[in-house]
Amino acid sequence: PGRALPGAGSTPDTSRGTAVNLVDPDVYARDGAPHEWFARLRREDPVHRHEGDPERGWPPFWAVTRYDDVVHVSRHSELFSSHRRLALFPELPSEQIEMQRLMMLNQDPPEHTRRRALVNRGFTPRTIGRLEQHVREICHDLVDQVRERGEADFVRDIAAPLPLYVICELIGAPVSDRDLLFDLSNCLIGGDDPEYQPTPDQGRDAALAIHAYADALAAERRARPRDDLVTRLLQPDENGDVLSRDEFDLFFLLLIVAGNETTRNAASGGMLAFFDHPAQWERLLADRSLLPGAADEIVRWVTPVNLFRRTATRDTVLRDVKIAENDKVVVFYASANRDEAVFRDPGAFDIGRDPNPQIGFGGGGAHFCLGNHLAKLELRVLFEVIAEKLPGIRQTGPARRLRSNFINGLKELPVAF
Ligand code: HEM
Fold first, then answer.
1. Sign of the CA dihedral 102, 108, 113, 117?
2. Does residue 228 form part of some domain?
3. How far apart are CA 24 and CA 358, in angstroms?
4. DSSP labels, 240-278
5. Does some domain include residue 80?
């Protein structure tokens, strides 16, 4: 029987000699992603039979921790389905499952392929590149607002509003709607953290309000088309295919959820990484050509999305391990991004890392993050503006971590400049 590693939860799984609990959100709230466990699993038991957690509604699953295996699972949706039982969630009531299944994230090809092609049109590198000036203005505004005060909570004042304001820009929402969308999106992405978690009623009301918002926005653009993402998404493609009203509303919801907390935590986790590695901050101040590489290294280091879950569509084998049809398979991006077989000195935060094949946006395949160009643009421009206007930024108190096994995030990061 294995020695329990530090931070072991209350119901460790001791099968095959390793005591781990990668589900318990307290593990993440306490120490961040449990990298000691990940390292040991990669070494000793890379396709690990993990106990379920009945209290939180997680059935047992295979924990996949090596880079190559995460890529394999991600690229073989015919073997590892996002649709057959849901990609991430614990078992949900059936009406919620039906609703979630309509979301692209929870579909398999060929159903997924059609929807993805329709929305891809709005997220090409060229379309996203056109946003750079707006992103820069938003970053300057956010930084200017706190600069005079001399101190801030980096999460609340900069990292959280940035992606939401950028999405508002992307969809052409007026500035006066920012606060409303900010509150609604926070309500949807509370995770497991009791400090954030809305009641089921608040969560449902927020989802309904976002649907209504999406409906109204679509009606507006149909009546008065503009040169923007929403107008483009409502137009038929060259084959005459078009998103239905439900599909548009659900995509809008996915955009708000997928685009917000991820980027927020990359930004705040990136800032914390610089505080913990001041030589890297000095390096960036001295050489801004490191900014694009820094964005990738931040995503590798923080890995804001810890995991996704798939379901085996048939009996299969991963490494030497037999996986049965309907078994759950969970890929841990946070572990893959520190795999010593792929990254030299993976425990070092190195903004000049080259090559950096990080897979924080997914291991490739059908669901690879639609917003990856946008997220990297936001990180690059944000740290460019901070380097310019707040070069002496420093941490003034402890960072508080989010209690979640899904999102590697921060709730608070006090700073002064
Ligand atoms: C999917 C990570 C930012 C929109 C994903 C996936 C990951 C991810 C891991 C799933 C990949 C898979 O299953 O193979 C991240 C990270 C971000 C980020 C770490 C920030 C640093 C964004 C932004 C947007 C966005 C800014 C939109 C504005 C989406 C969408 C999907 C997705 C729509 C679903 C794609 C599909 O199912 O085909 N993201 N994301 N993400 N992301 Fe992101």
1. positive
2. yes
3. 25
4. S----HHHHHHHHHHHHHHHHHHHHHHHHHHHHHHHH-H
5. yes
Q: So what's the ipTM on this one?
A: 0.99
pLDDT in tens, 331-368: 999 999 999 999 999 999 999 999 999 999 999 999 99
CATH number at residue 132: 1.10.630.10
Q: Tokens 């398979």 label which residue?
A: 329
* pLDDT tens column, 185-198: 888 766 677 777 66
9 in a structural domain? no
Task: Report how many domains make up the chain.
Answer: 1
Site residues for ligand 1, CB cut-off 6 Å: 74, 104-105, 116, 163, 167, 254-255, 258-259, 262-263, 266, 299, 304-305, 308, 333, 360-363, 365, 367-371, 374-375
Supply the DSSP string of 36-78, one letter for each residue: HHHHHHHHH-SEEEE--BGGGTBPPEEEE-SHHHHHHHHH-TT
For residue 260, the CA-to-ligand 1 centroid distance in Å is: 10
141-178: string of b/e by CB count within 10 Å (b at 16+)? ebbeebeeeeebbbbebbbbbbbbbbbbbbbebeeeeb
3 state SS of 328 = strand
Residue 358 Cα, ligand 1 centroid: separation in angstroms? 14
Rounded distance, CA 255 to CA 375, Å? 12
| Domain range enclosing 244 | 15-416
Residue of minimum CA distance from atom 6 in ligand 1: 369
Domain for residue 7, yes or no?
no
Which ligand 1 atom is at minimum distance from the Cα of 103? 37
> Do residues 83 and 101 make contact, with C-beta atoms less than 8 angstroms apart?
yes
Which atom of ligand 1 lies at the shortest distance from residue 74's CA?
14
